[in-house]
Amino acid sequence: MFADREDEQHRLERQAELFDPLTERVFRAAGLGPGMRVLDLGSGAGDVAMLAARLVGSDGEVVGVERDPDAVAAAKARVERAGLSNVRFVQGDVQTLDGIEGDLDAVVGRLVLMYLHDPVAALARAAQLLRPGGLVCVQEGDMTYDWAEPMTPLWKQVRGWFLETLTRARVAPRMGPVTVLELRRQRLAGTRAATGVRSRRWCQGCSLGLGQRRPGSTAADGAP
């Protein structure tokens, strides 16, 4: 969101301090675990990729895709400082994922679909890189909620400015619930038969998870 790379890096790191505990809960509930090969969409500062790397352990691997070369360089430096050997970053387009190898166990992302012009197509493309039974787990936001109770005139004004800024920047403010409904309608744009991926579960609020029910699972399709 910031034009200056250093400011944006700082913003993402502070954001991670707030979101990481919830993201970890979402990933664990969705089934992310040791030994998995994971693709992180829109890695930015690398926080989600590093979180996933800790969950999959030394036997797993995480590849983060990010279009900004400066962000890729910064994320690589952070991984090196953190001493993580099971995560790497590549420059690429999340919308197309050209050049990204498949045979993945999971695709993850956080607050990235809201910036894409066709998020359903992006997830459909990501799903094609999964092995049968693979998992897609993304955490997105609903920023249209009431920020205070009661909503004072000042809160309403600030909220209106914020949402208008997102709209002008072509950022979707309700990507979480909208994506759930669209994916249920399109079934990942027709990729179910080819990939074995289908809706598994989604968490209300600012996160959702998708994937195929694993053998022995009793979770209902679409259960919270």
Structure description:
- The chain is an alpha/beta fold.
- The protein has a single domain (5-143, 173-211), classed as Vaccinia Virus protein VP39 (Rossmann fold).
- It has helices at residues 5-30, 47-56, 69-82, 119-127, 153-168, 175-190, 192-195, and strands at residues 37-41, 61-66, 87-91, 104-110, 130-139, 208-211.
- Strands 3-2-1-4-5-6 form a 6-stranded mixed sheet, with helices on both faces.
- The longest helix is centred in the first third of the chain and has 26 residues, at 5-30.
- The two termini are 31 Å apart.
Topology (SSEs and partners):
Blueprint lengths: L4 H26 L6 E5 L5 H10 L4 E6 L2 H14 L4 E5 L12 E7 L8 H9 L2 E10 L13 H16 L6 H16 L1 H4 L12 E4 L13
Parallel strand pairs: 1-2, 1-4, 2-3, 4-5
Antiparallel strand pairs: 5-6
Helix pairs in contact: 1-2, 4-6
Task: Describe this protein with a few key phrases.
224 residues, six-stranded mixed beta sheet, alpha/beta, 7 helices, disordered C terminus, Rossmann fold
The mean pLDDT is: 79
Radius of gyration: 17 Å
Number of strands: 6
Per the CATH scheme, the topology name is: Rossmann fold
| Share of β-strand residues | 15-25%
Order of helices and strands: HEHEHEEHEHHHE
| Cα separation of the termini | 31 Å
Shape: globular
In the predicted model, the low-confidence regions spanning at least 5 consecutive residues are 189-224
Strand order of the largest sheet: 3-2-1-4-5-6
Write down the oligomeric state. Answer: single chain
